[in-house]
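idk why but the lab printer keeps eating my pages so im just putting this in chat instead. protein + iron/sulfur cluster:
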Amino acid sequence: MRAVVHQWLLGRGNSELGAEGIYTWSLPAWVVELPWGGHFNVCPSAGVCAQLCYARQGAYRFSNVRAAHMRNLLLTLQDLPGFEQQMTEEVQHPRYQGAHVRIHDSGDFHSQDYLEAWLRIIRSAPGVSFYCYTKEVALFKDVVEPDPPANFGWCYSLGGKQDQAIDLDTMRHADVFPSEEAVEHHGYASQDESDLLAVYGPPQVGIPANNIPHLRRIQGAHSFGALQRIRDNQVHAKSGRNHPSDPSE
Ligand code: SF4
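predcted complex ->
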């Protein structure tokens, strides 16, 4: 018998995802203050993206949105088995059959236990398609890649501390470019028409930056990946080691 769901955990996300009929699960982006004191980094492998993050701007800062994201995070931190049980029950509901769920409209897999809870949730609902972007490359290589659920797609995203572990020629990944023209110029396939192209389209996924003027100024003419390579090379130069990559773009 189907479980009774009192309040949906999954929402319709931002307007673009909602328009595509994609359900979403969101956490706060990057570092947040916890109610009992101290801070928590929801995106442990965020790099330059943290300063350019659209999920820390605009509607994401509305108090009701922030409160909902914080509620989600606290559920995963304080009662992970309870989260898993609630979400497992919810995704059995007929409204999700044949639908897509994007895990993390904002935020990322902040721990292995949390990722493993999601993998069990995903396997419990073979009629639902789940996908995500993530910067947790090492964790996914260890925990997901050896035996991924058939109904789960993921796209590594550049701009994080683990970019160097992404083989840009062979691994599906996304980069955020300053414009559609820049996406095309660098040979990436734009996902502007549908967010689902991140997992169903060509494996080099280009995302044109959101039109947020102060973030566009910070980003300048570079992609997130290029900015991260510049930062990584500066760090390596300071530490006296060889440059890990050539940022020339
Ligand atoms: S990982 Fe995503 S949500 Fe987190 S800071 Fe970076 S862009 Fe924002």
